[in-house]
């Protein structure tokens, strides 16, 4: 987590709960894909309310994602989800194939020979990149994990325009 504590040019008057503050009194925290602006100093209740607001926003974002993915219609993928494992290939084989050690891998079988072919994936994210708490929420709520993985692999826009 990177914190930026420099003066910034924001319209502070438009920020809920921060309207009477100078920019010097605001702490900006940059996370992956989001920026949080909050008071630099807070008492215990202010901190609790800030944490609760962030928790509520997090829940709203997960609910939004779940609504985009939709309920599972008993697809075989979600039923067998626990059976899927990460593909692990020894480093020397990856090097021999010209695949970076940290590359995401995918596998398929050759129909006639029965061989399993492992190649570098042509996508950046799949279900293995999703935090376990999101998987747990989706499983408990009956949200389709296959749909989530498809949206990850296709890099679909699922929020905003």
Could you name the key traits of this structure?
161 residues, alpha+beta, 3-stranded antiparallel sheet, 16% strand, elongated
3D architecture notes:
The protein has 161 residues and is α+β, with helices and mostly antiparallel strands. It has a domain at 71-161. Helices cover 35% and strands 16% of the residues. It contains 5 helices and 5 strands, in the order βββαααββαα. It has helices spanning 44-69, 76-79, 91-97, 132-141, 145-154, and strands at residues 2-4, 26-31, 34-39, 105-109, 116-120. Strands 1-2-3 form a 3-stranded antiparallel sheet, with no helix packed on it. A two-stranded antiparallel ribbon has the order 4-5. A hairpin with a 2-residue loop joins strand 2 (26-31) and strand 3 (34-39). The longest helix has 26 residues, at 44-69. The protein is elongated and about 70 Å long. It starts with a strand and ends in a 7-residue tail after the last helix. The mean pLDDT is 85.
Short description:
The protein has helices at residues 44-69, 76-79, 91-97, 132-141, 145-154, and strands at residues 2-4, 26-31, 34-39, 105-109, 116-120. The protein has 161 residues and is of the alpha+beta class.
Question: What secondary-structure arrangement, pairings included, does this model have?
Answer:
Elements: E1 2-4, E2 26-31, E3 34-39, H1 44-69, H2 76-79, H3 91-97, E4 105-109, E5 116-120, H4 132-141, H5 145-154
Strand order of the largest sheet: 1-2-3
- Cα distance spanning the termini: 27 Å
- Bin the strand percentage: 15-25%
Indicate the structural class: alpha+beta
The H-and-E topology, N to C, reads as EEEHHHEEHH
Shape: elongated
Oligomer: single chain
Averaged pLDDT: 85
Portion of residues within helices? 25-40%
In the predicted model, the low-confidence regions spanning at least 5 consecutive residues are none
Largest sheet: 3 strands, antiparallel
Count of alpha and pi helical runs: 5
The radius of gyration over CA amounts to: 22 Å
Q: Tell how many strands the DSSP assignment holds.
A: 5
């Amino acid at each position: 987590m990177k914190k930026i504590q420099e003066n910034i040019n924001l319209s502070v008057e438009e920020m809920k709960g921060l309207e009477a503050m100078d920019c010097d009194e605001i702490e900006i925290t940059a996370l992956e894909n989001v920026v949080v602006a909050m008071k630099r100093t807070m008492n215990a209740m202010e901190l609790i309310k800030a944490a609760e607001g962030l928790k509520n926003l997090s829940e709203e974002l997960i609910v939004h994602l779940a609504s985009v993915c939709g309920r599972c219609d008993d697809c075989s993928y979600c039923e067998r989800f626990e059976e899927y494992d990460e593909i692990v290939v020894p480093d020397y084989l990856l090097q021999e194939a010209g695949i970076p050690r940290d590359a995401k891998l995918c596998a398929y079988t050759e129909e006639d020979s029965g061989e399993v072919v492992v190649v570098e994936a042509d996508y950046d994210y799949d279900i293995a990149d999703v935090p376990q708490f999101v998987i747990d929420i989706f499983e408990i709520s009956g949200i389709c994990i296959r749909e989530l993985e498809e949206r990850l692999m296709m890099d679909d826009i699922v929020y905003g325009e």
